[in-house]
Amino acid sequence: MIVCEGTQFSNVNSLSEVDVEREVRELISSCKRLIVANISPLDVDRLHTFYRVACECGRELVLNAKLAAILARIDGYNIKNYPDLSELGILHIEKKRLVKWKRSLLAGAGRSTFSSRFSEREYELGKKFRCMVEVDDLIRNPSDYILITSYYSYEELAELYRRGRGRMNGGIYIMSTSEPFDEELEVKFDKLKNWIRIAGFMYYPIHSSGHIRPIDLKKFLDEVGAKIVVPIHTDSPFYFESFIRDLNVKVLHPVRGEPLKIKL
User: How many CB atoms lie within 10 A of CB 197?
Assistant: First the structure.
């Protein structure tokens, strides 16, 4: 029995990571304004793609604080293509009050003298990064940076608009992660798209999902001689079944809250 995903049966994305890198490179190399990209926080390969392109185009990669905190926590686990954090910056958005973890992380990145106001752990994580970058740095020298965000964050765009006042027009926003899959994320995504327009950025979706293509999944099931298949993470389970019907495979459809009965 094989349990397998069927994510792309309703919407096939044929881009590979190589394709993503080529399109990102072409786009960034043709732009003299600020580049902002949104990626999944744990998509290390995608971050590495943007890092390579940034180096080729003479730009510095800057992360928002939330993404930086996540990456700092999982640094050192020998993950393939993991970025060298000492070459990345963290964006500082000036506020009257910052939560302690963010204040501490930024203080470490900015090499501020440690004090009791900081969390020692977050302060040390911040020191993994090259520096702290101010919003005004992005406004003054937009062609020098690529800002990487995550979780459909629009705080950075709002601050760029507030402080830049029209000077950020002509920038490019690259959506390089999956589109929202629930109502809460859709609301946040809509707000983000509004801020992209308000801030004067052009929107470009460039993403490779990482999910297996239907034709490749079918080939795999045939080669391993699957007898029973349970499709998960798909909104087209019966299309999935019809697509592999000629393999003479029994397809079991799981139902939420009900046990799956398997007869071998």
Answer: 12
Identify the CATH homologous superfamily for domain 17-205.
Answer: Metallo-hydrolase/oxidoreductase (3.40.50.10710)
pTM: 0.80
Which position has the token pair 């096939």?
Answer: 12
**Whole-angstrom distance, CA of residue 115 vs CA of residue 126:** 14
Per-residue pLDDT tens digits for 201-232: 999 999 776 667 777 888 888 999 988 888 88
249-253 CB contacts, 8 Å cutoff, 24+ apart: 249/221, 252/228
Cα–Cα distances in angstroms (integers) from residue 248 to residues 5, 125, 245, in the given order = 19, 53, 6
Cβ proximity of 241 and 263 under 8 Å: no
Q: What pLDDT, in 10s, does the model give residues 132-181?
A: 999 999 999 999 999 999 999 999 999 999 999 888 999 999 999 987 77
